[in-house]
Every structure is written in C-alpha cells, then in structure tokens.
Amino acid sequence: MLDIFQYGFMQNALVVSFFIAILCPCIGIFLVLRRYSMIGDALSHASLAGVAIGLLSGGSPVIGAFAFTSACGALIEFLRIYFKKFTDLLLTIILALSVGIAITIISSGRLHANADSFLFGSILTVSAFDMVSILVLSIASVAVLVLLYNQMIYIAYDEDAARIAGVRVRLINYVFSILVASAISVSIRVVGVLVLSSMIALPVATALQLRLGFRRTLLFSVLFSVVDILTGLYASYQLNVAPGGFTALVSVALLLAVMLAKRLWLLFRLRKRPRAHTDGR
C-alpha cells in the first residue's frame, strides 16, 4: 500500500486529503447542527463557477473557487433578510447564478484547461502551488474556528438567544460563510464539486449516530473523515476511478456500518438485560 506514495503527485494528494479530512467536518458539524447542509451543497456547486473564472483569468482555480464561493456565501447571508420565510429560494438563486456563469464560461471555448477534473476530483491535478494554497487556507480556517469556537456553538444551538446575549451573530455568520468557502475550495481538487458536500455532511452524520457530546462528536467526525478520504484516495488509485465518487461511496458505507453496529449493540444489550421475576410464583 505504501508503495504508491513514493510518487510526487500521490504525496501532494495525501497531504491535501489529510487537511481536507480535518477541515470539512469542523465546518460540517456547524452546518448540520444549524440545518444548513443544503447550503453547503449549493456552495460546493457554486465553486465550479469560481474554478472557471480562475482558469479563464489564468490564475489559480483554487483561489478563484475560494473568492467566488466566499462572495456567494456572503450573498446568501445578505439575502436571508429578504427571504426569511422562503430560505430554500436562496439555494435556487445561488445555483442559478453560479451554474449559469460556469456553463457560460466552459461552453465559450475560451478555457485553455479542462474543468472536468474539478467535477469528479483528480489525484493527478494537485500541484505544489495548489498544495501550498490549500495548506494556508486550511490552517487559517482552523485558527478562526478555534478563535470563534464558543460563539459559533452558541449560534448553532440558538441563534436568537445568542443575539440577545450580545454575540455578533451577523458578523460571525459572514465569517462562517467564508470558512465554508475555504473548506469547499481546498477540497475540489481531490474530491470534486459533485460529491463535495458528502465530505462536509456524511462524517458528521456518522459521528452523530454515537450520541456523544459536541467535542467528542467533532473528534469522531474528523476520524471518520480521515478514514473516508484516505480509503477513497487509495482505492480510487488502485481501481483507476475518480477519487470523489469512490470517497462518497466509502462515506455512505461507513455511515451504514455504524448504524448497523449501533442497532446490533442495542439488541445485544436488550438480550443481556435481566428479566423481571414475577412475585408469588
């Protein structure tokens, strides 16, 4: 197994995957608790427009994805004021804007690079510059998460109470949208746009099955994410398939395995429970 990591592109992909495995569930747990997982899905599709803009301008597609997705995240937060009762419309607006831009640029024939690898993920496309960009974005995002940890937990459980308590909810929501954009932009190289939301939500969904406290749920989310991505990375290389799709399959399989193990454990405990004796017999 370790023989494949002697190649430079696999070493780059391994480093990037490790940081993705840490960052995505750290962002995802707040999205899931706030029931915003579909917003993460919408922003992951929006990143394709950022990739197209980055390729068209001759710059880094990762930086392009980060900039455009950050703008879309801020736009969602801004539009929440006008669509308080119809928040699902925000996703339609963002998808229409971003997918329209992406299709227009890609179909124009002006791109000098293939954008397909960003749809499905590719190990071969992770360059040294991309790796440095991803490391910087990941470290900065984790640092901001640590700094705003208590406030973000408060907002995740009760946004109105947090606002009454003096937490700057609006500002932190804008910052959080940038963190989501960071998690998405660092992941598109390996995971791909189409299944990126699975790496944000599924490890968290798996950890939630254990019914632990917030911190232990977060730690198990990272653990499951590492297993998902590294297994998907290795298996996709061996099977010669796109890593994004196979990683999503591994994530679903691990979720089902944990749910089955939890069910079997509950049945085992019920059988081991001593039966009540009937008095007078």
Automatic annotation (TrEMBL):
Transmembrane segments: 12-33, 53-76, 88-106, 118-150, 171-188, 194-210, 217-237, 243-265
UniProt-listed GO biological process terms: response to zinc ion; transmembrane transport
Localization: Cell membrane; Membrane
Coiled-coil residue windows: none
Matches recorded under Pfam families: ABC-3
Keywords of this entry: Membrane, Transmembrane, Transmembrane helix, Transport
GO annotations of cellular component type: ATP-binding cassette (ABC) transporter complex
Family of this protein: Belongs to the ABC-3 integral membrane protein family.
Name of the protein in its database record: ABC-3 protein
UniProt source species: Ethanoligenens harbinense (strain DSM 18485 / JCM 12961 / CGMCC 1.5033 / YUAN-3)
Source taxonomy: Bacteria, Bacillati, Bacillota, Clostridia, Eubacteriales
